[in-house]
């Protein structure tokens, strides 16, 4: 097993990241999922509110 200097490893990782693309679809899916969970929790918790009139 050869020893790879850290600088070479970082350079290879940076060049591999450029080849992967931007990942915009994953980012959009995660943001929509996050806000969807918040909206769903708001609707569910709103249903548990009782009026004592």
Question: Care to describe what's here?
Answer:
The chain is an all-alpha fold and 53 residues long. Helices cover 74% and strands 0% of the residues. The chain has 2 helices and no strands. The longest helix is centred in the last third of the chain and has 24 residues, at 24-47. It is elongated.
What's the arrangement of secondary structure elements?
Elements (H helix, E strand, L loop, with lengths): L5 H15 L3 H24 L6
Radius of gyration: 23 Å
Number of helices: 2
Structural class: mainly alpha
- Uncertain runs: none
Short characterization:
The chain is mostly helical.
Quick tags:
53 residues, mainly alpha, 0% strand
